Amino acid sequence: MEAESKKPAGYIRIISIPGGEAPEWVRECWMGLELPYVEEAKTVRSDVSAKKVEGEFYCVDVREALNTLTNRSPEAAQWYVDHVPISALTYISFEKNCCQILPKGTKRGS
Residue 12: which pLDDT band, with cuts at 50, 70 and 90? Predict the structure, then answer.
């Protein structure tokens, strides 16, 4: 049985290229996307190598994130499918400094 997704705590817009182990062209594709985040974290595991990373992050449901990315760039989303153990992930995390919180009630437009 599949775990139920958490209700979004709010929405973020990616405003600069996020860090991470994906190639830059893949990370560039996140810019401008609007995503629901479900929680904030100070420690996460990197998507590719599973190394522990310290910082401040917004955590986005992995399925929601990849569906949104697929609409922008199917090739970038496919990179994650090919290189990241997606089935083992619950969230994709974005550093807070590459995100803008969208005001409550803002109409989303990814």
Answer: very high
